[in-house]
Write a structure and sequence with these properties.
Radius of gyration: 15 Å
Largest sheet: 6 strands, antiparallel
Oligomer: single chain
Structural class: mainly beta
Distance between the termini: 13 Å
Number of strands: 10
């Protein structure tokens, strides 16, 4: 079960979710160069502007950090991905079996104040 996290500031919305990368289908993983593994998590983020249904994606500078139970902080390298007019961001990190990770994400859209989002995701692996 993957639940999207959501942050809104004015007309801009940030959506983020994280999942065990083994849940991706093989074709999608190959297309984006993602390792499918029960010990890897995938962080997905998109920034949208406008009225839902008529909105568009926005480029942004994304800073993402994973914070482990022991307080260890790991930077997540977020890669920009373009599909037609849409732009979104993907990042991978190593995870332990059934680990819970706190994410801290700062999204900077040009000429806007930085937006900060935090959420916790538990990764259940088989």
């Amino acid at each position: 079960f993957v639940q999207a996290q959501f942050l809104k500031a004015g007309d801009i919305r940030v959506y983020a979710n994280a999942m065990v990368s083994s849940q991706l289908n093989a074709e999608m993983a190959r297309q984006y160069g993602i390792s499918r593994s029960a010990s890897r998590a995938l962080l997905h983020l998109v920034v949208r502007e406008g009225t839902p249904g008529k909105d568009k994606t926005l480029p942004a500078t994304i800073t993402a950090v994973a914070i482990r139970k022991n307080g260890e902080r790991s930077n997540i390298n977020m890669q920009i991905t373009r599909e037609g007019q849409d732009v979104y961001y993907l990042g991978e990190l190593n995870i332990a079996k059934n680990e819970a990770v706190n994410f801290e994400i700062i999204t900077q859209v040009e000429k806007q104040k930085p937006m900060r989002m935090t959420f916790r995701q538990e990764f259940f692996s088989q």
